[in-house]
Amino acid sequence: MMIAVYIVVGLAVGVVAGYLIRRNLAAGKLAGAEREAERLLRDAKREAETIVKEARLEAKEEVHKVRSEVEAELRDRREEVGKAEQRLLQRDEQLDSRAADQDRREESLRDRDANSQRVADELQIAHDEAMIQLERISGLSAAQAKDMLLKQTEDEARHEMVKLVRQVEEEARREADRRARNILSLTIQRTAANHVAETTVSVVNLPSDDMKGRIIGREGRNIRTLENTTGIDFIIDDTPEAVVLSGFDGVRRETARLTLTKLITDGRIHPARIEETYLQAKAEVEAAMEEAGEQACFDTNVHGVAPELVRVLGRLKYRTSYGQNVLNHSIEVAHLAGIMAAELGANVKIAKRAGLLHDIGKAVDHEVDGSHADISQQLCKKYRESQSVCHAIQAHHQDIEPQTVEAVLVQAADAISAARPGARRESLENYVKRLESLERIAESKKGVEKCFAMQAGREVRVMVKPAEIDDDATALLAREIARDIEDQLDYPGQIRVTVIRESRAVDIAK
Predict the structure, then answer these.
(1) pLDDT at residue 149 is higher than 80
(2) 393 partner at 20 to 30 Å CA-CA among 161, 203, 225, 495?
C-alpha cells in the first residue's frame, strides 16, 4: 500500500510540475519546456520505478517475514493441537479401560450378590434347623432362651457395676479417711484436755462432827431454812465431817455450797443469818458466772459478744450434760471448730463463735420450751449474732440440714468433744437401747441370719444366708445397713458394719 501511494504521489507531482512548467514557459520556451518536461518525466519515471522496485523488495521481505512468523506460529499451534489430541486419545483410552473395568466389577458384584443371597438363604435354613434342634435338645423355646441370656447378661452387668462401685467407694473412702484422720488427729492433739465427769452432788467438809448439830438446829429449823432458801437437799448422815448437797441445778447447788461454807466459817448459824449469807453467796456466784463467761470469750478469742449472752454463757459453768461440764465443752468445741476451719480454709471466726455459743441454750432450757439448739439459736438471734453463726448453732444436732462448712465443722467438733474417752457418762439403759437398735436395723434386712453388736456398739457383724445373698449383694447390703444406721441413730464416732457370707466379709465404716 505504501509503495502504491508513493508511486501515485510521484506521478501526480510529476504531472503537476510538467503542467506548470509548460504553462509558464509556453510562450517562448515551449520547446525547452517540453524537453525539460520530458527529462523530468523520465527522471520521475526512473525514480518511480526505483521506488516501486524498492517498495516491491520491501514488500516481498515483509511478506516473507510475516509468512515465516505465521508458519512458525502454525507449526507451534499444530504441535500443541497434536499434543492435545494425543492427550485426548490417551484419556479416551483410559476412560474406555475404566469403563471396561467398571463393567467387570459390576458383573462381579452381581455375581457376589447372587452368591451372598444364596448363602444367606442357606444360612437361614441352617439357622432355622439349628434352632429347631436346639429347642428340641434343650427343651426351651427361643423366647425362653432369650430371657435366660438377658438375665445372665444383666447379672454380669450388675456384677461389674458392683465391682466398679466398690472400687470407687474404696478409693474415695481411703482418701477421705486419710484427710479426715490428718485433720482430726491434728485438731485433737492441739486441744488435748482432761475430762472429769461431774455429778449432781457437792460435798462440804466440816471442821468437826459437832457442826452437824448446829447445821440441823433446834428441831431442824436451820436445815429446813437452808433447804427452803437454796432449793437443794442437805444430806447429813454418818459420813464423818462432811455434808452432802444434792440437786440437779448446778447454780443452786454451788450457791448452797458457798452459803454453807460461809456459815461454817462465820460460826453463826440461824435462819436470819442463813438468808443473809445466801444473798451474799448468790451475788458472788452471779459475779463468778459473769467472770467465767468473759474468761471463756477471752480464751477462745471471741470478742464483741453481747453482755447478756456473756452472762448466760457463764451459767454453763454450773451446767453438766451426761456429767460433762457444758462451759468446758463449749470452749473445747470452739477450739476444735476453729482449728478444723483453719485446716480447711473456712471462716475461723464464725466457726469459733458458733462453737462457743452452740450450747448456750442449755443455761435456760428449763425456762424456755424447745430443744437446746433452737433455744441457743433464738438467744443468739435476739442479741444480733450473724446469720451464719445462728445457722451453725441450730444445725449442730441435725435439727436442720447444715448449709455451710462452718455448720458442719461445729457439728463435728461437738461430736469429737462428746466422744472423748471419759468425757461423758452413759447410762446402762441407753447403752443397751443403742445396741438393740443397731441389731434391729440389721436384722430387718432380707437374707440376714444373725446380727451382733460388738465393741460397745462400735461394730455390727451381720451373718447372711448364703443361699439368698451372693458376694456382690453383700456389699449392697452393707451399704444399706450403714445408711439406715446413719439416718435413724445418733451416735459419736464411727460404727463399722461387717457383712459376713461364708468366708467372705464386706466392711463399711460409718
Answers:
(1) no
(2) 495
